[in-house]
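call fold(seq) -> tokens
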Amino acid sequence: MTSEEYKEILREGKFVVYSNGKYAEVREIGTNKLITSYNIKIEDFKRKLRKTAVTLCLSTILLSPFFFSGFKRGEKNLEYIVQNANTEIKNQTEFSNQEKFPFYIDEAFVKATIYVESSNNPYAISKAGALGLPQTYFETWKEVFQNDSYQDFIKGIRDEKKSSEFILKYYSLLDIFMRENWDLYKELDNNTKRIYLAAAYNCGPERLRKLNFDLSKAPKETQYHVKKIKEVYKKLI
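ret:
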């Protein structure tokens, strides 16, 4: 496996999942030991696994390292991790170019952001002056669409497709910021990364950095925002 071919898409417990868009590998964190690999086009991995167990030998499959890899009590089993990974791959592959954007910045995350920010109202205006579906400002919009005029901005924040593109790309910029300014960020699982990205979107990445990325010290508005993003995201996936 090379970094050019495979990208990390999920961390759960003691395992990490990598994918190149066609195949995925589950490896043990720390040792990088390959636990299993599979074709992501197989939508129902659990069903395939059960059929294999019946066809070959149930005891052989159940006693394999795939199921028993030192799991601690309460830790998610590997089969569930694979299912989560498949969902991440499917969402991101259908929504965007996986060569550009992290898998955890998926369509459901973008839609949840629009809903929580503006209640899907293209003409929404916040008390602070944030505008449109993404509830953003012209200066922030220009970080993504550098050549856009103010008229382009007004048109874009009222267009669902353009606003979704903005949020996707802006989250990607925030993701880079987090990686460059917080060493622990890359060790987080995908759900937690989404939480921090949502927080940075709401209160600003620099403010989050000044708080040492401690969400308990973030403004109450940001904490509420993150909570709502999580709730809506769960309903959308």
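Residues 7-95 form one domain.
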